[in-house]
Amino acid sequence: MGSEAIGAIGLGLLLVLMILRVPVALTMLIVGVVGFAQIISWDAAIAQLKTVPVEVLSNYSFSAVPMFILMGVLAAHSGMAGKLFDSTRIICGGWKGGLAIAAVGSCGIFSAISGSSLATASTMTRVALPEMERYGYNRGLATGALAAGGTLGIMIPPSIALLIYAILTEQSVGDMFMAGLIPGLLGLVMYSLTVTVVMYLRPSLAVAGEPTPWKEKLRSLTGLVPFFGVFLVMILGIYFGAFTPTEGASVGAFATLIYALVKGMRSAQLWASVQETLALSAVVFFMLVGAETLGYFISVSRISFSITDVLYGMDLTPIVVVLCILALYFVLGMFMDSIAMLVITVPVVYPIIQAMGIDPVWFGILTVLTVELGLMTPPVGMNVFVIKAMAPHVGLGEIFKGVAPFVVSDLMRLALLIAFPILSTLFLL
To answer: What number is the average pLDDT over the span 204-230?
Structure first.
């Protein structure tokens, strides 16, 4: 049996194991080791089991992952999220749908130091949903805005998804972060506009908040200072070369820790933050070990090159190839976790992108945005299920219905980024 046939069987087995709900990391590890053994030898496959975990866990670039996770966890446990929503709520006071816009804005700002969509969605739901319900907001609109706002964490730098894509494809982490800045902020603006349009079409879904004077709005900006301070230090430091993205993650985590301690974080809260960070980091690193093992198998099977040859034979243009891959991501996003989808598919599709001469940074932004869509779409929209867990009294149908306008907004944003690549590459020129 040829290596390409073994590669195809391996990818089929990968899907079967995931359907059987075998953990994603374990699935990639099993398929990678067994497939590699069938093509090379069992001795080589066993040797991989000894070397790959060491390679991943000793990779200096990967040390940024727990630092970014720690930033978000500390921000959640230190009360920063509550102060953030209070500030945005006051700024949007008196607007029709102002609390929903404030929730979206809070999610966007919180994600700028969290880097995680699920952490952003769970934290901001705990803070913002009771307030919106108190003012009589439609539950679908309220939870839909939070589910959509939570997805901003996957794009606005520092983003764990962009970091993992950069490392898997050997791109500059700094370049990926800079490329995600405009698309991330564009998402924040378009989500806010979506709330405005929904309120115009269906004004009964919410009421105007309590008007707040301009003096109070300006005073409330102080609640945003910690977030913008940490964000600007990291992004400007990376952009101007003061430190690497990995060092920037450490700087951001240290700054967030100092702020949390100054604001009175107790030892119990600090210990809980460390435990949560370790648990989440272990999950991510286990998936990265599995992805690295799977990547070796994909490489020796040469299945990516076979797919590339087929695409060349079909005489497809690069943009059509990109659209086909994004369509695949959109479908997979309905069933898989975002990080898992990246680590499984990038080793397969990236050689195709390289062979087609497609800009890997631009493609990475499109990929992460399409993965972001999967966080909101049924049947397995992870952000929707996180919010459902935080608000069990709201039905899944209500949340999915409320998030639908934001899915349309994201599709429009994706179309803009495809039509105008400069939106992703402006800061790289």
So the answer is: 77
